[in-house]
Specification:
alpha+beta; 5-stranded mixed beta sheet; Fumarylacetoacetate hydrolase, domain 2; about 35% strand
């Protein structure tokens, strides 16, 4: 089942995606119940399918080839960091280039959405705590990330965490370690890999995180990016006004976002205001 969070005629709602339609499904992303007539998918705005107050926990250097291209050694244990909620946007919203960075990069990642509280679970138990999977773009301001000496600011600027277009429930993804994952920039393939190449698989990550950080329903884990990111290329490739970034994950979906310079958008879009309004009125778990 594909579960979306969308806006239509000013109202935010959970929805069950069926073909090219979405069926209104109440106000709980994790427990959708059909409550209305189907709408054309093209008629709604797809927002980030993340519940308010959800944690966004990310995993760094989780593909050996990406660690190598970054000039780092592969970690012996999962390397964790966080993105902040103001960074969330959905498939219908732009990635906005800030004026304080000119090295904004893309990172295609498999996202894991927690469905049941997980505290000190084993890897064998972890799968029972997963609600589903989604596409994540861990957008990163490399100059800030590397210049600050820690990653929070460079990873958490407004609009720097596109998620979506929906969550595919775990029963429709029997093996999250057998998924092709790609990133395309303006139609050109930049990343092309498989989740089979993760250093630490989904079950291991959920278990590892839960040993000291209780995972709550709706929390999102971004499981790391494969090789091919922009800052490691010769010459480097960074996002520019007018670009289109596309994250594709087999059996999960396609997340596509346009890129816009803040000056180009002008008063038509204020990232903090619009993203926070989306969270404030978002569908909530009961």
């Amino acid at each position: 089942m594909r579960i979306a969070h969308y806006r239509h005629l000013g109202r935010h709602c959970a929805g069950i995606v069926s073909g090219d339609t979405v069926i209104p499904a109440g106000d709980d992303l994790l427990r959708p119940v059909p409550v209305g007539e189907p709408l054309p998918l093209e008629a709604v705005e797809l927002l980030a399918p993340v519940v308010p107050a959800a944690k966004i926990i990310c995993v760094g250097l989780n593909y050996a080839d990406h660690a190598a291209e970054s000039g780092d050694e592969a970690p012996n244990e999962p390397l964790l960091f966080a993105k902040l909620p103001n960074s969330l946007v959905g498939a219908s919203e732009p990635i906005v280039l800030p004026d304080l960075s000119d090295r904004v990069d893309f990172e295609a990642e498999l996202g894991v959405v927690i469905g049941r509280r997980a505290r000190r679970v084993t890897p064998d138990e972890a799968r029972h705590h997963i609600f589903g999977y989604t596409c994540v773009n861990d957008v990163s301001a490399r100059d800030l990330q590397l210049g600050d000496g820690q990653w929070t600011r460079g990873k958490s600027l407004d609009t720097f965490c596109p998620v979506g277009p929906w969550v595919v429930t775990s029963d429709d993804v029997p093996d999250p370690q057998a998924l092709g994952i790609r990133c395309l920039l303006n139609g050109k393939v930049m990343q092309d890999s498989s989740t089979a190449l993760m250093l630490f698989g989904v079950d291991t990550l959920v278990s590892y995180i839960s040993q000291g950080i209780t995972l709550e329903p709706g929390d999102l884990i971004a499981t790391g990016t494969p090789p091919g990111v922009g800052f490691t290329r010769e010459p480097p490739v960074y996002l520019a006004d007018g670009d289109v970034v596309r994250v594709e994950i087999d059996a999960v979906g396609v997340l596509e976002n346009r890129v816009a310079d803040a000056a180009t958008l002008g008063a038509a879009f204020h990232p903090l205001t619009d993203v926070q309004a989306s969270l404030d009125r978002s569908v909530r778990p009961s």
